[in-house]
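Allow me, if you will, to draw on your knowledge of protein folds for a short while. The matter concerns a single protein, recorded as an amino acid sequence and a row of backbone structure tokens. Kindly check, if you would, that the fold set down in the tokens agrees with what the sequence suggests. You will find the record immediately after this paragraph.
***
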Amino acid sequence: MKRAFILCYLLSLGFSQNRVLAAEPADKLVSPEIDNPSLPEKKLTPEELEVRKLELLMEQARQSMVKHDYRSAITSYTAVTRYEGTDFFQAALEYLGLARERNKQFSHAKAEYERYLRLFPKGEGASRVEQRLAGLLSAAFEPKKKLRKSKRALGKSGWVDYGSIMQFYRHDSELQQSIGNNYSASNVYSSFFYTAKIKTPSYEMKNRISLSNNYDFEEDDEDNDLLRVSKLSSEIHSRRLKLSGRVGRQTQNSSGAYGRFDGAVLAYHYNPRVALRMASGFPVDFGTYDSIQSNKHFYAANLEMESLFGYVDFNSYFVTQYFDNILNRQAMGLELRHFDKRLTFFTALDYDFSYSVLNNLVANVNYKVNRNHRVGSNVTYRRSPFIATTNALQGQTVLTLDEMLSVRTKDELRELARDRTARYASANISWQHKFSKNIELNYDYTISDLSGTTSSGGVLGNVGTGFEYYYSTQITATDIFTKYDVNILGLRFDTRSSGDRTTLNLMRRDRLSKKITFGTKFRMDYQKRTNGEILYDIRPSSKVNYKISRKYKLEFELGLQHRIRKYSFDASNETNGFFSLGYIAQF
């Protein structure tokens, strides 16, 4: 039935959708505890406490990207990428490259894209990153010529379609001391993106589709055949009526209802700078992409005004969300943004009327002192996660609020939700200096604090992290040893509740010919954790890109990871290896 539903949906929309420009935010991680007060309580580790802080940073960065405040986004995404190994790391790394690219830091963007593809050579995100990296390399390497106009894009009317197909095979092997060779992964990831547009003098119509499948050779279950539908929507815009609408699986982040959902958005464009939008739908949870979650729904409205008073962009929203017909979230939000050639300012506020709680307050300022110096600062105070009745499910054995209502009242659920919600605060300063056209230095300093939560409902509260400190510096040099080369040296120091870590990053990329690009990377981590463990982590890798033509590309990557763990009573050594091979075809 699920496959039939998807097939009918595809046919009804014309089997078309756009390439996605941003990775889906990773799901919130929860460490469930059994809801039984008689069981022994177990304290959560500092690593588990970090999850909530990462949720906050990702949301903060997302808002900055929406408002084109790329310096703030860079700061937040950089902070998240310090937590490699979490479910947030992959999305943050892709967004970091995109933020640097849009901030005109092309050398940094290339480095982040290369790093992403080394770590995640397959998947929907890899295809997007490959395309962005190819665009940067083309801009840097190819001579500037007057481009011929595309026949399909000529004129005010017509049909335009484009898309991409990619497949990657990846094999990981794990070599452990005195154990032998253990194959940990062997799979093929396939994805398909397609967009079809039709444009006339009176209206525009766009259909989008994004599909993917991950086939694991070591697993023999129905999930191998699961078709994941990330986007499937149709959109129409009438110039005469000043109306636009979109229906299907989509994302719409300006209304306070964040993430992917199945539903509809209707907008009235009073003029090119003022728009009123109404949205309603069913949120899509990670791992449930093959069905509609009808037990969750929301209603939202927002007003957007560009160049208010000539220099400020304004957005306000009101959103109401329900889960199992129980009020989950009811909030109002305001956002203001100003940016010019020298000054960028962004502030956002989210207040929940139902709980009378300030969910989010953030202020970011970036100032270009001169052509070679730029400084920035960001201050954030927010709830982690945003206050919502579904927070009461954390640590429980049930999955829905309806199930909890069989043993608790609605007022008790709301109190549990408050107990499960922490407070997060952070402050950041950054500095960028260009020594010359080819050499640039970046420095960031961040201090943060995540509060603890209250024990209740058979769930033990979390202990706060206390103040944590992050220092990072990175120097980027281009065209130093050979023409078009990129060289990056980065150093980072973290002082966290779980321990201290020092990281050294080295990267070099060369263009061997018009068709071949070769890159090497080396990363070394030293961690001293509060539990007495000492960890050395060394990761070298190399990657070759072969550009068959403008639209077709092959890629091969080979890498190793050697890890040494030392305890007060023992020590261990691990060596992991991987290789990946795949192609990307655009049409």
Remarks:
- Residues 46-66 form the longest helix (21 residues).
- The helical segments are 2-13, 46-66, 70-80, 89-102, 106-119, 124-141, 401-405, 410-419.
- The CA atoms of residues 436 and 486 lie 15 Å apart.
